[in-house]
Write a structure and sequence with these properties.
Oligomer: single chain
Strand order of the largest sheet: 1-2-3
Low-confidence stretches: none
Mean pLDDT: 85
Largest sheet: 3 strands, parallel
Number of strands: 3
Order of helices and strands: EHEHE
Helix content: 10-25%
Length: about 70
């Protein structure tokens, strides 16, 4: 099964780290593809488990949580 993941957090934030953890436990029957606005900190990590598509028009989330 092919699954497309959209991740606009590329600088090591919670969403990216959660996806990284998911990939560690992902079922081997899943063909993962991920769209990123740039490779950032996690791009190389994601390339180990997924086909990475860099689309600059997919803008990185710039607003930070009040908890950071």
């Amino acid at each position: 099964m092919r699954v497309l993941f959209l991740n606009s957090c590329v600088n090591g934030g919670g969403a990216g780290r959660s996806l990284e953890n998911y990939f560690k436990h992902m079922d081997s029957h899943i063909e993962a593809h991920i769209v990123l606005p740039e490779k950032g900190v996690l791009g190389e990590v994601f390339e180990q488990k997924a086909r990475v598509w860099v689309i600059p028009e997919f803008v990185e989330r710039i607003h930070r949580s009040a908890y950071q």
